[in-house]
Fold:
Amino acid sequence: MNRIIESSILAAVGSVAVTAAVTGLAVRFVKPGLTWYLVAAGAVLLLMAVHGILGEALSAPAPSDDRTADGHHGLGGETVDAEEGHAHDHVSRVGWLMLVPFLLIGFVVPPPLGAYSAGRSGGEVRKTSSAFAPLPSGDPVELTLTDYSQRVLYDDSGSLEGRRVRLVGFASPGRDGGWVLTRMAMSCCAADAAAIKVVPDGAQSVPADTWVALEGTPLPAPEQQGNAPRLAHLKVEQLTRVSVPTNPYDL
Structure:
C-alpha cells in the first residue's frame, strides 16, 4: 500500500471522527464531554493525511520510458516483477476495505442502546452522595432518572416531598411482565453503559423501545426484596410519547 492510499484512509477516518463530533452523532458512543477529544484526534489524522499526500507528491520520481519485457514500467532500468505488481494491487484493495466501517456511519446512523441492552442490567443506582442540592423551581420539575432514583432511595431530607416530577426515557421489559422507564448511563462510552430504571406505577402499557415522558408524584422507597434490584417508583399521572432526545443517555 503506497503513501497516497494510506493517507487517504487516514483522511477518511479523521473526517468521520470530526463529523460525528460536530453533528452530535458522537454522543451515541461517548459522553458529551469527550467529544472534543474526538475532534482533536480527527484533526491530527487529517494533518497526518495532508502531510503524507504532500510528501508523496513532492518526492515522486520523474516518469520513465523504460519498460520491461512483460510491458511493466521500470525505474532506472530495473525489472518489475508482474506477480509483485499484482500483489501490490491486492494489498491496495484490501486497504480500501478498511474504510467500509467508517463510511457506513455516514449513511447508516446507529441507534442508541435500547431495551435489549437494558435487559442485561438490573437498573439499580448506587449511592454517590449523602447531600443533595435543592431542586429547581417548576411544576413539574424535570429530573434525570439517576437523580430521581438517588433522591427516592437515599435522600433522607425529603427533597421530593410535595413535588411533581417529569422523567424521560424508553420502555424496557420489567421483572414482573410489565415495563419500566429506562435510560442508559455511561461512565465513559457506550461499551460501559448501564441501565437506570424507574417503575411507572399506574401507567398504560407501551411497546419496548418506545420513548415516553412521564409526569407524576414520587412514591416512597420500596423495601429490599432478596437479591432483586431496588428500583424507585413513580405514581404516573400523565404519559406522553416523545421522540428520541439528541442525547439519549442519562447525564
User: Anything to note?
Assistant: Confidence is low (pLDDT under 50) at residues 74-80, 84-88. Residues 214 and 239 are 5 Å apart (CA to CA). Helices lie at 3-23, 35-59, 82-97, 100-107, 115-118, 145-154. The chain is about 35% helix and 20% strand.
